[in-house]
Write a structure and sequence with these properties.
It is a multi-pass membrane protein. This protein has 12 helices and 11 strands. By secondary structure, the protein is of the alpha+beta class. The radius of gyration is 47 Å and the shape is elongated.
């Protein structure tokens, strides 16, 4: 499931890797900045409470009127003297803030007897609410009834009264998070965008090279060599591929010339021998000689066909496969062979009919040789056209099926035509199927008791 979601291309995987790395880096940055901001806020809050507790708290409240009385009012609302602890029922103490505040006070030479730090809503603090009811705009701007405040109560050693300081809990600034988000977006645009342009310059010629390699079959299609493009490494790769492609095409051309010469040089003396054995008086010896010559000729044809199957000269043509299979069945019926036509469906595909006919004949011949009966059918299944040839022979041991399509591999060790030939029929059929983008599949047919009832050979061609 994960492999289906992840991109398969180099470009996609690199962009995804960079995007994930940036996401992790920015997440770490957000966490670190958030913690730093929390520490800054806490330090400022503790310092403000400590300043209030250290300053002279004995300023009495004065009537409103001038600015001096306003300042005294502000100081009066910040500090309070009481005989009891400011902690209300149900409130819990903040031990961490208490430790931090005690440390600041002791550095100022304050002998702290008892210290209490708690948090509560502004609306639950009667001292602040009373001040808001008689205060002005300044107090209303500073103290939000819907907000939160921190209350610190201190009793000095040797004193009975509590000094109570209050400070509003600052809201977490949104600008920090907005800045981080904007920074992340800019990083993504710059780094991912720049990396996309760079990787695109690398992967575009690689994609073109991949398509070229996939199309290359050793035959020059008239297309000129690829133009080197991209970074220097990619240019060198394309240049090396062009040279390798030219060498491979030249070697295959030489191979075709050599095979043509071998076929001509061998078939000509074989034909002469076929004529000369007619002068042999002994009919039995003459028949054996003729069979041997035919054996050599068929083996030579199979070898040459196998060598040329990867470089076909005839083009693909739209062919009705059901008609092709029926014609092969008719050929064997005319020769008196036990070949039957099963269920067929109309399927038209671009194929090389001569080669595909050769593959079907090889499989039918193999079925008749080992099973004395062949049944052909053509069906559609899972996006494939399947040409199936089934026999009633002994089948193939399961451990040998995977090796039966290798050259010169047979189910029994002899090389005589009566028992199976040179072992190139299945190999050639597999090569022809692969030439058309398909596969050759061999399997044993099983009866009700699990016993092998024959071999099933399938040529699977993609639709």
């Amino acid at each position: 499931m994960i492999r289906r979601i992840l991109p398969r291309s180099l470009l996609g995987q690199m962009l995804l890797s960079v995007a994930l790395a940036l996401l992790v880096a920015q997440t770490i940055s957000v966490v670190l900045r958030y913690r730093a901001e929390e520490r800054r806020v806490e330090n400022g809050l503790v310092n403000e409470l400590a300043f209030q507790l250290v300053a002279d708290p004995r300023i009495e409240y004065a009537p409103r009127g001038d600015q001096r009385s306003q300042r005294r009012e502000r100081r009066r609302l910040r500090i309070e003297r009481a005989l009891e602890s400011p902690q209300l029922q149900g409130e819990s103490r903040n031990r961490e803030r208490e430790r931090a505040l005690r440390g600041v006070l002791e550095t100022q030479g304050i002998a702290v007897g008892e210290l209490v730090v708690i948090s509560r809503e502004v609306s639950r603090d009667s001292y602040i609410m009373d001040g808001l009811r008689r205060g002005g705009r300044f107090l209303r701007n500073r103290w939000d009834p819907g907000g939160e405040l921190v209350v610190a109560g201190m009793k000095r050693e040797g004193e009975d009264q509590w000094l109570i300081a209050r400070a509003p809990r600052p809201e977490r600034p949104r600008s920090t998070m907005v800045g981080i988000i904007m920074q992340t977006l800019i990083l993504y645009l710059v780094m991912v965008g720049g990396l996309y342009l760079l990787l695109r310059r690398i992967t575009r010629p690689l994609a073109t090279l991949t398509r070229r390699v996939e199309r290359f079959g050793g035959v020059s299609d008239g297309a000129p060599p690829m133009e080197p493009s991209g970074p220097e490494d990619t240019r060198r790769l394309i240049t090396a591929h062009n040279a390798m492609e030219a060498r491979i095409a030249g070697l295959l051309d030489e191979k075709d010339v050599m095979l043509g010469a071998i076929g001509h040089d061998l078939k000509t003396p074989l034909a002469a021998l076929r004529v000369r054995i007619e002068s042999v008086d002994d009919e039995a010896e003459r028949a054996k000689m003729a069979a041997t010559i035919e054996d050599i000729t068929r083996s030579l044809d199979d070898i040459l066909s196998l060598a040329r199957v990867g470089r076909p000269s005839d083009p693909l043509e739209k062919t009705e496969l059901s008609a092709l299979v029926s014609s092969v069945v008719e050929e064997y019926e005319d020769m008196g062979e036990d070949v039957a036509l099963g269920d067929t469906e109309r399927v038209a595909l671009p194929v090389r009919a001569t080669w595909l006919r050769r593959a079907i004949r090889n499989l039918v011949g193999n079925a008749l040789r080992y099973g004395n009966h062949a049944r052909l059918s053509l069906i559609r299944d899972n996006g494939h056209a399947i040409i199936r040839i089934a026999d009633t022979g002994p089948g193939i041991p399961e451990e040998q099926i995977a090796h039966m399509t290798e050259p010169f591999t047979r189910g029994e060790t002899s090389r005589s035509r009566e028992t199976g030939g040179a072992g190139l029929g299945l190999t050639l059929a597999r090569a022809i199927a692969e030439q058309h983008g398909g596969t050759l599949v061999l399997s044993n047919a099983k009866g009700e008791a699990g016993a092998t009832t024959g071999l099933v050979a399938e040529i699977r061609l993609p639709l």
